[in-house]
Amino acid sequence: MVSGPAGSGKGTVLAELLKEQNYRYSVSATTRAPRPGEVNGVNYHFLSRAEFEGRIGAGEMLEYTEYCGNYYGTPKKEAEAVLASGCNLLLEIEVEGAANVKAKYPEAVLIMLLPPSFAVQEARLRGRGTETEEKILERLSRTREEVPCVTHYDYVVYNHDGRVGDTADDIRAIVRAERAAVRRNGNAADNYFS
Amino acid sequence: MVSGPAGSGKGTVLAELLKEQNYRYSVSATTRAPRPGEVNGVNYHFLSRAEFEGRIGAGEMLEYTEYCGNYYGTPKKEAEAVLASGCNLLLEIEVEGAANVKAKYPEAVLIMLLPPSFAVQEARLRGRGTETEEKILERLSRTREEVPCVTHYDYVVYNHDGRVGDTADDIRAIVRAERAAVRRNGNAADNYFS
Prior knowledge:
- Two copies of one chain form a homodimer.
- Chain A is about 45% helix and about 15% strand.
- By secondary structure, chain A is α/β, with parallel strands linked by helices.
- Chain A has helices at about 10-15, 50-55, 75-85, 95-105, 120-130, 135-145, 165-180, 190-194, and strands at about 1-5, 25, 30, 45, 60-65, 70-75, 90, 110-115, 155-160.
- Chain A is built from eight helices and nine strands.
- The two termini of chain A are about 35 Å apart.
- The mean pLDDT of chain A is about 95.
- In chain A, strands 4-3-6-5 form a four-stranded mixed β-sheet. A three-stranded parallel β-sheet of chain A has the order 1-8-9, with helices on one face.
- The first copy, chain A, has a single domain (about 1-185), classed as Rossmann fold (3-Layer(aba) Sandwich), CATH 3.40.50.300.
- In chain A, a hairpin with a 2-residue loop joins strand 5 and strand 6.
- The interface between A and B is medium-sized, with 31 and 31 residues.
């Protein structure tokens, strides 16, 4: 699960990882409006509030949270299908949602993706040019709540300008290391002698 | 810290890692006899029992243990010099020694290196042709004590025949992931906004 403030480059980094067959993304659902270029079913499942609340009621959300006035959540069925395939499931998730998933699935790995600094983040958001000043200030203010949540995460990865390959390599290393963690290989000794 | 039973290929894997500048090895001390080709000060510091016990008495050993009738230990001064340089310190260490170091340095990372299976290990030891049948049986018997200690380790890495590069990559991934671990980056949030 990857969380990160606006401007951390989550989308770009995940796209880099998804070039490999063994990484698969579970598309989140949201009630926020699509940004220019965003495609329904690819970037997000864009739902109305009524639709989203209907899915919550039907128990179809692995987790969900409301932030900046919109719902964000993970459809359960899609995530479970990826895990059943043996692939690495990537989830882009808000800090509250991440805490909820970790509580239910302690084996999940929480990665906080950050720009190199708050100053760089602000420059990126302004450079994007797709959002109003009000939205930018809202996102920066939200960042002050999000980043301190890093203490509940397993890893912190910095996404430097123009180095998305290095950032993806950090996440690949984390996945590789986690798969070698003794706590995920409880039968190592028995298997060795069998 | 890398532990592994005889025939796990510790020496070969560490040599692969040491090709990189940012990995450095702290040469262990032992009272066992050098094997053909082993060089004093490179593979081990080969000491007499009296010399080794003198160093223990002088508090110059980070850890030491006695196994199969010989002492094995880590000279403190050498290990501390590597850590002070900022490099990754590699230690090849017995299971008892690893537990001792972990107790003193909880931030140390314990990796158990294993052959793919006990059967492969036995074939490797016999193929080596440098040891008597008695020694081989002693090492295999010792393995039955060592491998169950994996539960006290952080990671388990398998060294498959002819794939030392992959094995070294596993360890590189572990080091990279550990450096991104939140518990090693306690000031991440403060640093971000500063």
